[in-house]
């Protein structure tokens, strides 16, 4: 571990879905970053990356949210988030501003500092000191934006290889979209359903008992389908496994402690 | 062809439950992408060729007028004629005029998506000229009164049984399900037509400016008979197909074959340069090229300019999970899949085609396979912006987005909202850990459960920890 003087200053981009649905992903990300020698802060003025507006063609709102996010993460050496999709959105910010606009330079600077968590650990920090253990056979879904916009493919696998007792069975078509697509899944529900059905069939055929991925949106979609179909497969975000934080029930599984939490 | 794009959702719903169609789409998925991947595996320089092709196309588009004029000049020099068609109507009229000048009763046709775009067959028929499709897929479709569902494999939505039935009904011969027998049958039927035709109409994959040549690439050879047997050969194609030199053309040929079918080279690559000369063994007496614009020149300099690079290889649709689920007809017009979702709104209007650029998860697979690196998701997003700024997107979606945006732009209010929603979802889920029916989110819960939040929001828990 590095001395505190040299510790990287990282702002955590929580993402709206992790905030709302699965805080443990955020805490697992913090744990990993800290063990990799970072000081982590969570700016309270962040909300969502703006992707729903951006992909719905609402440029004005996208610009407002981009500015808000850029300001929230001003001064951080790095911005790291547990989602390839949301970090890709941060990478789109420069497109929203004319090159002559001072915001363009700020957006470009943010883009240069913004990383998806597995890529940050692997590509930037060269960190693979994973001390976790996970009893199970996992299969990994490559979420689209992380894969095609950020080049996240090998990084999660490199890190998972360090997890004790875990083996990886690749599914067929691991790079094919699960059909989530943000608002797509409610705008075109039956097409989305067909895509997630194909995905669940491939997951099932892989023989894995755990599905891992790097984007909560996709994981909610796949878990929702797998559970509706009655599959026992556990669905988790990769950071939960890497950080050894798998005590909580898997995504969409029972036993949430309702009383205590509310 | 009737425009059915506004019914995309209903079309898609029907398609998803069409067992035969789904079987056919399964074959497509197993076919083209696998062969493409193998072909690229054998060509390490594929990606650098893509860069080269992209740059060359950009250069061509920026100098489109120049190359088109050069092309016209050289076609004319060779004794051919170039006709400029601003609209579909112009194109159809021009072709009908030529047919009338030579007294044509029947015309044979090679595969041409531009002719579909301008609705040529219906126009000719309505004006007393009978078009006969000679590409096997197109021929089958014509017998069935059907339309292409794919830009290079027009009858991909059909299964063998459909062909058996169509041939039996129209040829009056015993039913056969042997592809070889069916092929022979089609050949026999078409031979007569080839000989009888007064005019042959083909498309063109590329137009070569330096020589005034057009080229068609096919795997059947029907195009050769279509263009060499009749006295008159009409090429119908669009303005962005022009390339400067023969050598430039070969760059695109290499990319096209591999991206489309995974072939190293398409079987027939047939160049046409003017009418038959004195010492030529064969060829038409008259050679015409109809260059269709149909909105393309407006794309130059617009946010859709990149789309003009398209070489119609079909890789984007072959790899698209949405196309693969619903098939080409669902898109309701000539061009399906990702490239169609960008082109169709330009050609029939975003008012009618708005559902197409929205029917994408932006998974980016199309862009990743496009041989000329067209940023298809970005271009679809431009259409969504256009729709949004014209207030064309559905009201409910706009209100939902507006409400969400109000909070997303106000972090402290947003915290309250997410806290409330978080509680509501957990209460609805109860001990099950997931919600099976969610008001206003039927699109989700009709098909899958909604996993419930696992506890208080991250921001709440983080704040507590920081104290
Ligand atoms: S958009 Fe690209 S992938 Fe699609 S048909 Fe055109 S060239 Fe091929």
UniProtKB/TrEMBL annotation, chain A:
Residues 10-90, 139-222 form the Cysteine-rich domain. It comes from the Bacteria. Pfam families: CCG (PF02754). One of its GO terms (cellular component) is cytosol. GO terms for molecular function: oxidoreductase activity. InterPro entries: Cys_rich_dom. This is (Fe-S)-binding protein.
UniProtKB/TrEMBL annotation, chain B:
Keywords: 4Fe-4S, Electron transport, Iron, Iron-sulfur, Metal-binding, Repeat, Transport. The keyword 4Fe-4S applies. This is Iron-sulfur cluster-binding protein. NCBIfam families: LutB/LldF family L-lactate oxidation iron-sulfur protein. Gene3D superfamilies: Alpha-helical ferredoxin, NagB/RpiA/CoA transferase-like. The lineage of its organism: Bacteria, Pseudomonadati, Pseudomonadota, Gammaproteobacteria, Oceanospirillales. The keyword Lyase does not apply. It comes from Neptunomonas marina. One of its GO terms (molecular function) is metal ion binding.
